[in-house]
Design a protein that fits this description.
Layout lengths: L15 E15 L2 E8 L8 E4 L10 H9 L3 E6 L5 E5 L10 E9 L2 E4 L8 E2 L4 E2 L1 H19 L26
Antiparallel strand pairs: 1-2, 1-6, 2-3, 4-5, 6-7, 8-9
Length: 177
């Protein structure tokens, strides 16, 4: 005897932006590079978004940190930093992402739909900052530019975790907070 759950309404894999709820997240390592896999409510287990750790010139990790920032997850403190910047302390335990929301861009990669690793926040306010509709649109525009510059025309090329393709394109190394 077995059971089978049939979802009503189906899963929306249409290309473009989706506001998604994070159902789970787990860290892993591939070729000595740390990554974060993220799953979303209403999507199958084999549909994940993988974000590899990246460090800026100052040594600070920003790619996974940006996921926590935009998901408004794990933020424990905001401190005044140099030059009117804010230093955000984040508890980056993957379980802190569960139940959080992100704007995620779906794109075509060969025969598959994939979640772009560059995301945008939703509208929210916390102790560190506030994201308005205009801010959300700004970050969506940044993600779309990343897609057009580094992903769209190279979808048929092999991507490596450090953001390069076989065309030797490189990903922007800093994302300002």
């Amino acid at each position: 005897m077995r059971t089978l759950t049939v979802r009503k309404g189906g899963t929306n894999f249409s290309l473009g932006w989706h506001r998604l709820n994070i159902s789970d997240a787990k860290y892993g390592t591939y070729n000595d590079m740390k990554f974060l896999d993220i799953w979303f409510d209403g999507y199958p287990e084999n549909f994940t978004m993988r974000v590899y750790e990246k460090r800026g010139k100052n040594g600070e990790e920003f790619a996974i940190g940006q996921i926590f920032r935009f998901a408004n997850a794990g933020i424990t403190e905001a401190l005044e930093g140099p030059d009117n910047n804010v230093v955000v302390k984040i508890d980056d335990n993957a379980s802190n992402l569960k139940g959080s929301h992100l704007n995620v861009y779906f794109h075509k990669d060969g025969d598959y739909v994939r979640a772009l690793k560059q995301v945008a926040p939703t509208v929210f306010h916390n102790t560190a900052e506030e994201f308005t509709e205009d801010d959300v649109e700004y970050w969506k525009g940044r993600a779309e530019k990343y897609y057009l510059d580094y992903v769209k025309d190279s979808a048929h090329h092999t991507h490596s975790p450090n953001g390069t393709t076989s065309k030797t394109e490189t990903v922007e190394e800093t994302i300002p907070f």
